[in-house]
Amino acid sequence: MTDSKSNYFEFWQETASRIKETLPEQEYTTWFNRIVYIGSDDRKVILAGASQFILDTVISRYRDLIVNTLSELTGEEVSVDFIVKSRVEIEERKKQDPGEKAPRQEAPVIQIPKQKISVEKNLKMKTDCNLNPSYEFSNFVIGDNSTFAYNASLAIAKNPGVSYNPCLIYGGVGMGKTHLLNSIGNYIIDNTPELKVMYVTAEMFTNEFIESIGAQRTQGFKNKFRKVDVLLIDDIHFLQGKDSTQEELFHTFNNLYESKKQMVFTCDRPISELKNITDRLSSRFERGLNVDLQPPNYETRMAILKSKTKKRASAMSEDILNYIAVNVCTNVRDLESSLTKLIAYSELLDQDLSLEKAKELLGTLPSIAANGNQALSIDTIIKVVGEYFNVSSFEIKGKKKNKSLIQPRQIAMYLSRDITEFSTTEIGTEFGGRDHTTVMHAFARIVSLMKGDEAFSNTIQKLKRDLTNSKK
Q1: Range with the largest mean pLDDT of 7-11, 69-73, 234-238
Q2: Is 214 annotated for ligand binding?
Q3: Is there a contact between 232 and 185 (Cβ–Cβ < 8 Å)?
Q4: Dist. CA 243–CA 396, nearest whole Å
Q5: Pseudo-torsion of CA 195, 147, 288, 54, nearest 10°?
Q6: Is the pLDDT at 114 greater than 50, yes or no?
Q7: Cis omega before residue 270 (within 30°)?
Q8: How many CB atoms lie within 10 A of CB 348?
Q9: CA-to-CA distance for 177 and 140, rounded, in angstroms?
Q10: How many CB atoms lie within 10 A of CB 15?
Q11: 362, 341 in Cβ contact below 8 A?
Q12: Partners of 378 in the beta sheet?
């Protein structure tokens, strides 16, 4: 083992720096701070760790990433060997490393041009993958309800197959699941076009599988989905009750997972709430990272509306945007629908919109009609109940089932059903995407408690008076 090409050390430094930018800090520290550069020999970099366990983990998770990054930086095919050294030798090597003390900016800056493809080819690649090119991370409006899902999706797009595999994004209709799923695919094609990406809905997957059986082309179907680098499947709740399709997806999943290929799925609810899904497939979906998209709060709804208005270069008064944000509490899709209707009216008739006209035009939309002209929103009810019981709105909407949270959550659901015109489905959506039966159970539970406990009943009545008196 010689260090015949000593400048590989600089390449290793730059490789480690680039990888550090793509991984969570704790993950990088846990593994990359436990390996060191030992030397190089004829297009081969030798790295060492203090135990076989460390090396096995680094090899299984990051070997391809390290090799690809080194090869990109050097402009040649570079292999990597891993050897075990004692902890004393590892620490000594770290002390001897001049790079350990060198500031980041002193390392040579190595610019490697990205693989360039034409705009036309880029668009064709996305179309061939069934992606919607308009869905990008740059036009996804981030709020408290979506920060976790957004960051997880971006991390996957930057480093597919290494972290968070598989990933499941779940949430109600119109929350942005499809947007994030397409954003992952579009980002990968824009930045690493050599990777093969495939986006399908669960319905498309099912239909193609059925057609392949009828045409006796099942092997072609298997090859199509098992030879991709990134598989994105939307709306897996569609698979409920479809046993043969579930069986095929199970085997596809295993094949891709063992090959360390990235998989991302979306669903309209947590996997545990799906019916007629085999246990072994459910366990696969839950194996990796599961993140939820909750309904956007008022601030996020306003940000989304302003972003959409700006994108369409349409003037819309603050009062009108506020009216939509207050009254359309269901999902992003309903927000866009409301805004589109107003913009179309203004542009087609070449008229400026007044707030009164906007109310008239939107009054027939289900999301507005359910709320009427009331200023009282479910978010407000949750906030008031949370303040009374000293718990946060996030906790009330969350998944925890602590005794201290269950009753405030049920009270907030009861009041939402009692003093607004929202349906149990809409209320469930506002409470973290819960099923309508959960809302019905909460309502019945609070009614029962009020009948048997006068003090409890007085508490509910007080909250109800406070909320109804606050209506504008």
Answers
A1: 234-238
A2: no
A3: yes
A4: 36
A5: 80
A6: no
A7: no
A8: 8
A9: 11
A10: 27
A11: yes
A12: none
Q: What is the reported pLDDT for 411? A: 95
311 among the known binding-site residues?
no
Burial track 306-323 (b if 16+ CB lie within 10 A, e otherwise): eebbeeeebebeeebbbb
Tally the residues of the chain.
Answer: 472
- Both tokens assigned to 438: 């959960």
Asked whether residue 131 carries a pLDDT value surpassing 90, the answer given is yes
Q: Are 182 and 82 spatial neighbours (Cβ–Cβ below 8 Å)?
A: no
DSSP 8-class letter at 113: P
Residues with Cβ < 8 Å from 156, sequence gap 6 or more?
Answer: 163, 164, 165, 167, 184, 262, 264
The verdict on whether residue 30 carries a ligand-binding annotation is: no
| 376: pLDDT strictly greater than 90 | no
What does the angle CA 243 – CA 219 – CA 267 come to, to the nearest 5 degrees?
40
Q: Do 254 and 246 meet the contact criterion of CB atoms below 8 Å apart? A: no
Selection from 383, 395, 397, 394 nearest residue 432 by Cα: 397
Answer whether residue 442 shows pLDDT above 90.
Answer: yes
Is-contact 209 222, C-beta < 8 A?
no
Segment holding 87, helix H or strand E: helix 87-96
In the chain, the amino acid numbered 288 is G
The sign one gets for the Cα dihedral 278, 282, 287, 288 is positive
pLDDT at residue 4 is higher than 50: no
Q: Are 184 and 230 in contact (CB under 8 A)?
A: yes
Whole-number pLDDT of residue 340: 87
Please state the rounded mean pLDDT for residues 425-433.
85
Which pair of tokens denotes residue 223?
A: 């090859």
Q: Which domains does the chain have, with CATH numbers?
A: 8-104 (3.30.300.180), 121-293 (3.40.50.300), 298-369 (1.10.8.60), 378-469 (1.10.1750.10)
Strands 79-84 and 167-171: unpaired
Q: What is the DSSP string of 308-375?
A: HHHHTT----HHHHHHHHHH--S-HHHHHHHHHHHHHHHHHHT-PPPHHHHHHHHTTSHHHHTTTT--
Residue 174 annotated in ligand binding: yes
**Band of pLDDT at residue 132, cut at 50, 70 and 90:** very high
